[in-house]
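User: Hi! I'm working on a homework problem where we have to compare a predicted structure to a textbook description. Could you give me the structure for the chain below?
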Amino acid sequence: MIKFVGQCVINLITAVKYMFDGRVKFSSVITNAASIGYDSLPIALAIVFIASVVISLQISKQFLMSGGESYVGGFMAVALIRELAPGFAALAISARAGTAISAEIANMKVTSQVDAMKTLKVNPVGYYFAPRILAASITIPAIVVLSELFGIIGGMAVSYLTIGLHPARYMTSVWLLLNLKDIYISILKGFIFGVIITTVCATQGYNTEGGAKNVGIATTEAAIKSTVFLLTADLIIALLFYF
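Assistant: Happy to help. Predicted structure tokens:
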């Protein structure tokens, strides 16, 4: 695992240098942004919305019984923006787009397309990694913000239907308890998660050797490792900014 982390760091540095050299094609970034962001948007929104509905169902009645129903909206907003929306959205994108990135690059590796690029004196790490990292770092923060909005709306609808909490009171508690710092950190999380997903999954695919069977193994490993790294990064960010 330590060796793999080192490979990810080296590949990320190489990709960043490739970006600053101005060799990343805009069309490639747009294509990858559509694949990573747009195609993953429905599943990310659905997961965060369902999670917010379930949590709101669980807490609304309890808050009402304790006389704190006015704080349901604030609780939901803080929970969603600090943890649930960035985490669930990133995990959904990792499962959908991250595994696709790993499988695509692994297939290129086992079919010798990467070796062909080396003979043409093209840096395969920069060529394959840079557009995907750039696209993910732009699109995933946007998906996180949209997921937060959908989650807050879902919590508001459930609290109104279950305990009759007026939407105005719900949104008032949102504005009272939510800080701009929370929103900024959630966007930062989206950026970091995007870099992690693409770097880890692309590195796993790039390390693939053998045949078609190994492509499937690499895809599974990419899903597992990206999940572990995402949760670890989430813990580190929480320790840095909230304690």
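For your comparison, note the following. The chain has one domain: 2-241. The chain has a mean pLDDT of 88. Good luck with the assignment!
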